[in-house]
Structure formats: structure tokens, C-alpha cells
Amino acid sequence: MSKVAVLGAGSWGTALSIVLADNGHSVRLWTYRKEQAEAINATYRNEKYLDADIPEQIKACHELKQAVDDVSAIVMVVPTKAIRDVCKELNNTLTHRPTIIHATKGIEPGSLKRISQVIGEELARYDSEDIVVLSGPSHAEEVGKRLPTTVTVSSLNTQHAAYAQDLFINESFRVYTSDDMIGLELGGALKNIIALGAGISDGLGYGDNAKAALITRGLAEIARLGVSLGANPLTFLGLPGVGDLIVTCTSHHSRNWRAGNLLGRGQKLDEVLDQMGMVVEGVRTTQAAYQFAREQQIEMPITEGLYTILFEDKQPGDVVEQLMNRNKREEMNDISAFSSDSRPQ
Ligand SMILES: NC(=O)C1=CN([C@@H]2O[C@H](COP(=O)(O)OP(=O)(O)OC[C@H]3O[C@@H](n4cnc5c(N)ncnc54)[C@H](OP(=O)(O)O)[C@@H]3O)[C@@H](O)[C@H]2O)C=CC1
Ligand SMILES: O=C(CO)COP(=O)(O)O
Which GO MF terms does the UniProt record name (predicted)? Predict the structure, then answer.
């Protein structure tokens, strides 16, 4: 059995800690808020973030040194915006070299880097090749209840990926491996853009037809951008692609869907984010994907439409009208992204 540190005591960090504890591992759940660590240890609950009892193998802590001392793996689950700061703090703390697994779903606006690239850049003595990503259709709320869930792990270091698979796999949490790190990270990040769109569509009162169209045409956009960055197109037809798109676009558990739903009902972005009180990664990822699509001239009409709603105050109904009135075309013409011929060599 291993000692594992989970960094980030939000919904997903807490749910992943429960999986690890169920597997017999000793878990230190790190939060940057002292009072939260004290409350978790006193009540065995993490009330704001997850409706689940916390097993006693999980000890919450506020000191990063105490969390990572002696562990054989670190699972990073802080929001994208906090990854660099946490890595910097880790550099002042880590004296050994545990396996690093991340389960954060985002792309950094500005640098347009994936999370493993950001970690590889910031963390002394690690390259992005050393990092493992864990992604797939997995709402924390269901994982916390031990409902059947499947995810995929990937790393350019296959031994690290196999170790992560062994660490997490159990009878209700099935873990596959993949050799497509880029596809895993991009699938998990980009589906949040489409989930915001699906929430807006539902908030506007549109039906299942519109949502099915968003998911399908959204998948084409994700694949187009993903393949241009070196992902395997088939990954987007698997758990980290279609799987995560379905779960996020169709579930009330999804923070991105819920935020979109409020936007579709007419609320402003600032109000919505205040109200959510949890991270809505799709907002920053829309910024990043929009920037990339423009720079690389990749056609991403849904992402562009969403960007104008989020950052240019455009009305959701007007954006839908614009999307529905684009030039006539053949459906499969622009899904060439699914062909591996279009991958960069
Ligand atoms: N929830 C889910 O079902 C899933 C989430 N994910 C991904 O996991 C990541 C985390 O999401 P989730 O757990 O849902 O988010 P939550 O909003 O539930 O939790 C985020 C946690 O990170 C903390 N945090 C924020 N900023 C910092 C910082 N600078 N340093 C340390 N901790 C910080 C927050 O603290 P505070 O709130 O006090 O600021 C909070 O405890 C996201 O990338 C998300 O996409 C992936 C799969 C499933
Ligand atoms: O990534 C998720 C499920 O796989 C969770 O999505 P949300 O962040 O939208 O809740």
C-alpha cells in the first residue's frame, strides 16, 4: 500500500482521495485553507464540496511539507489557474521524487499549454514526459458514492501510467491506460467549452435536438483542434472524448453545464461565477481555445460563439441564430480531423 498526497481539497480531490482510501492507501489531502483541514479532520466531511463521508485513512493537512513528505505519489487536483503556484510551492518543499499524477482539466490561456506541460515547466527535476494525466467521464458526486465510473490514465512514461492505474483501479472505479497524453488532456479540457454551450442551450429552452447537435459538432471542433496539436483522433471517440462530453453536457452535476444554464436564463457571467462557488474551468479554456483557433486558423464556430457570449456580452440567442445561418455545407467535409492523415508528423 502507498502513501499518497492529494493536492486540492475540492470536489474532485476529495472524491479521488476516497477511491485511494478504499484501495487501502494512506492519503494526505492538502488544502490551502487551514480551517478547512481542521473541519475535515474533526467531522470526516468536506461539506461545501462533496456529500460523502470521508474514510479515516484520509488526513487533511494545511502544511504542504506535511502532505508530501515520504509519499510515493502526488495527485494534483487544483484548478488550472492554481497549478503554477502550487508547483512553485512544491519546489520549496519536495526533497524526493514521487510520481506526479494530475486530474485537472484545462488549458492555460496565454501560453496555451496543457497541464502536464505547465507542471513540467515549473516543477524542478520533472519533465512533462514524467507526468501522468487521469481523465474521463467522472463526476465527483458519483465517485463519492462509489457508483461505477471509468477513466483513462496516460503518460509518456508507461511505467508511471501503469503505476497510476494500479493505484486507483477497483471494482467501482475502472482505469484504462492510453498512449495519447495529448488527446487525454485536450479532450478533458475542451469538453468543458461544449458543456457551457449545452447548459446555455437548455437555459434558453431548446430541446434534445439542439443538445445532440452541440455535442456532435462540438466533438468535431475538439478533434480538429486536438489533432492539430498532435492528438490521436481516435482518443476523441473514447472515454476522454465522447465519454466526457456526454457526462458533462447532460448532467446537472456538471459545474460547466450549470453555469451555462444560468447564462442561458439571462444571468451575467460575473453573477454566475459568484453563485457557483466552485471552479468553472470552461470559461478560461474557452479563452485559450479561441486564441489558439484564431492564431492557427482552425474553424471552431461553437467556441467562437461562446467566447463572444462570455467575453463580449453577446446575447446567447443571437449567437445561436448566427450558428444556424452559417454557409451551407456538407456535414463530413470538415470532420477530416478524425482522419489520422491530418496529424502533424
Ligand atoms: N468535480 C468533478 O467532478 C471533476 C473535476 N475535475 C477537474 O478537477 C479540477 C478541480 O475541480 P474541482 O475539485 O471540481 O473544483 P472545486 O471548485 O470543487 O475545488 C477546487 C479546490 O481547489 C482549491 N483552490 C483554489 N485555488 C487554489 C490555490 N491557489 N491553491 C490551492 N488550492 C486552491 C479550492 O479552494 P477554495 O474553494 O477554498 O478557493 C478548492 O478546494 C478542475 O480542473 C476540474 O475540471 C475533473 C474531473 C471531475
Ligand atoms: O469533468 C467532469 C466530469 O468528467 C466534471 O465537469 P464539471 O467541472 O463541469 O463539473
Answer: glycerol-3-phosphate dehydrogenase [NAD(P)+] activity
